[in-house]
Amino acid sequence: MISISLCMIVKNEELVLGRCLDSVKNLMDEIIIVDTGSTDKTKEIASLYTNKIYDFPWINDFAAARNFSFSKATKDYIMWLDADDVLLYEDNKKLEQLKENLDVSVDMVIMRYNMSFDKDDKPTYSFNRERLLKRSCNYTWSGQVHEAIDYFGNIIYSSIGVSHKKIKETPIDRNLKIYEYILSQGKKLQPREEFYYGRELMYNNRFDDAIEVLTSFINSSFGFVENKISACKDLAFCYFAQNKNLEGLLSLFRSFQFDEPRAEICCDIGYYFLEKQEYTKAIFWYELALTRTFDEKSSAFQIIDCYNYIPYLQLCVCYDKIGNYQKAFEYNELAGSIKPYDESYLYNKEYFNNFFSTF
């Protein structure tokens, strides 16, 4: 059986650190905590789980802190988590099986990172992350913010999910300030950094600046395809926020320049026409979304509901609006097969029960 070092960087995480470590401690052969300046009980809590606690001065560089944590690892493989991550029971059991059976020829294990959840605690937004890494490969983090590791070696994909269960809100401008610090030092952003800088501007409602940066990234000949597609979606959001609806629609269409339509893009276009009460056009795009396949190995930011529940529910609305009540009912039932306790489905179900009972 392989051995695993858990490597974490933390700061003022007294509310969540114990929860995180409790969810994985049975599977870790070594726990390494790198503290970047806590003033609460974070280090005291960490000491209940490990004596390998190190200080690292914060220098506006997440990659530097993570590389320092990796440098302290001594086991066969390294796993990383953030303090507000957890492994749910089923994922803990999957990781236990993986640990027992992993072929040592594997260099990297990609796992799902589940970022948001519905009322039934099912993931609604997730993407893949490099999560378990062979120490002898000397993987290195890059990027002062939104840091990542380049994929290489013998890579496998796992259905194990790490769940991001945030309790406290991170200051919305934290990452933006780091990018602005980088730029103030006269450094040029790499394509991936430019993409994320544009997103941070968007999150902070600096839409004009975000449009400029995202457009520059889209127009460049560099960058990952999935980031280009996401940038088109984000650019559309910025335009819609400024009531520049045609520009927003064209930004969504531009994503087709890079690859075939994604379900997320189709749903956004469908919503555009739904809002304009052009229901047959909306139906086309929502039905197209249903033909898209959710790719477990994709590096894209995927909204799981865009591949089934959202199109079903919106098609219910559209067909109801054009008077095809039977088809509207059928799509609502399909939505219910995905989320049987969702309020929207149940509301529609009652509506159709009352409607059909009058005939």
Helix content: 40-55%
Q: Mean pLDDT, rounded to whole units? A: 96
Largest sheet: 9 strands, mixed
DSSP strand content: 15-25%
Tell me, briefly, the overall form. Answer: globular
Q: What Rg, in angstroms, do the CA atoms define?
A: 23 Å
Order of helices and strands: EHEHEHEEHEEEEEHHHHHHHEHHH
Distance between the termini: 66 Å
Count of individual helical segments: 14
- State the secondary-structure class: alpha/beta
Stretches with pLDDT under 50, minimum 5 residues: none
How many extended strands? 11
Give an overview of the whole structure.
The protein has 359 residues and is an alpha/beta fold. It contains 14 helices and 11 strands. It has helices at residues 17-24, 42-46, 62-71, 89-101, 174-184, 191-203, 207-219, 225-241, 245-254, 263-275, 279-290, 309-321, 325-338, 343-357; strands at residues 4-10, 30-35, 53-55, 77-80, 85-86, 108-117, 123-134, 141-142, 148-149, 155-164, 302-303. Strands 1, 2, 3, 4, 5, 6, 7, 10 and 11 form a 9-stranded mixed sheet that branches. It has a two-stranded antiparallel ribbon with strand order 8-9. Helix 6 (191-203) packs parallel to helix 8, helix 7 runs antiparallel to helix 8 and helix 13 (325-338) packs antiparallel against helix 14 (343-357). The radius of gyration is 23 Å and the shape is globular. The termini are far apart.
